[in-house]
Amino acid sequence: MVSTAAEIAASVRAGELDPVQVTKEALDRIAAADGVVGAFRRVRVEEALAEAASVAARPDLASLPLAGVPVAVKDVTEIAGEYASHGSLAGPSSPAEEDGVIAARLRAAGAVLVGLTRVPELCVWPMSDTPDGIARNPWDPTYASGGSSGGSAAAVAAGLVPLAHGTDGMGSVRLPAAMCGLVGLKPGAGVLSEGGWFGMSVHGPLATTVADAALLVSVLASDPSLAVVSPPPASRIGMSTTVPLLRTPVPRELVAAVSRAAELLTSAGHAVSPAAPRYPATMVLGMTARWCAGPAEQARDFDFGRFQRRTRTHVRVGRLIERAGLIRSRTRDRWIARAAEYFESHDVLMTPTLSHWPVKAGRWHEKRWLTNVLPSTRLAGFTGQWNLAGYPAITVPVGRSVRSGLPTSVQLVAKPGGESLLLGLAAQLEAANPWPRTARG
């Protein structure tokens, strides 16, 4: 099994591991397994080895938080000498002249960027397939690994790398993390640079342990305090397994994961009781409008005629929404007021992460827009509202399905500034109920 990021970095800092050897081993794992897993759009073999050698020679090696750690980055990231495809053949393919903020912070921390992970076109969907590959769930490759950070989740869950970067606009870190049995954190608004979609999308980590997730988010946010995971204070935790507004049925084993987590957290001294926010009916409109109009805004820099069929429809819908003036701040404000009301009497909300099981892996990019929309909305009933509100949320593994063998998980949500509380609670769940770190064992 691949070591954790924290273990690798500590050994490199102590001179016990060579970053070049660590990188070679990661590249060997990718070469052996990614033909099945499909996690990467581009593997940076020569570049990564050169970066690892540079890390080994740095005079500040002993102080680097991610010293020599192989990290996968989502294919939306500006890396000098590479282009970010955003899962599309329609966009610019000229290499970036310099690193963007995410790559720059990773490199400054000593990470080695081994590759760009597969995403659906414009990161719209919770399944990550492109004309040249399909990101599959390492627990069962007949299932999708999720999206839009599905390639990142697959890379970590398969043990190819210990850490990966993702972005989350409607659940795009938390959903694939849940499907692949990982810890996935969506920081609150303002903690990291915003990733678009009218402020809904943010950057976040995917990891096999809470400590690794905390380490990566601390680097991405340039806030070392986030790397310190402390025992949380006794908290008031509201629990809900009802899909907001839609009230669609949730599979029993996904509901059971919440009950199991509630038992563990109660044993740890927290007060857990059934309670849900008063979700306003306009919340769904606010989320959906931004989910459509955000990619439409991004598409202005792309060749519309080269988009996939489903994307052309999505962009057209988004442009209609923009012209109709449906991106309204009052819709978000109304929901934030309701959320704030809930968190006056609760410290945390706990729900399932997934509102349905993952879809089967396949060439979803060849299917019609509505064929993609229906399973997407069925999966993401618990996640997107927290992007609209800008509240932090984390996915934590709980167990595995008896029927399918796929992971089960819970989502924990806190009010703004609650990232450390969420990490602390997740660490308590991890200590009380350890999960297999990767699909390889």
From TrEMBL:
Residues 22-423 form the Amidase domain. InterPro entries: Amidase, Amidase_dom, AS_sf. GO terms for molecular function: catalytic activity. Signal peptide: none annotated. It comes from the Bacteria. Belongs to the amidase family. PANTHER family: GLUTAMYL-TRNA(GLN) AMIDOTRANSFERASE SUBUNIT A, MITOCHONDRIAL, TRANSAMIDASE. This is Amidase domain-containing protein. It comes from Amycolatopsis camponoti.
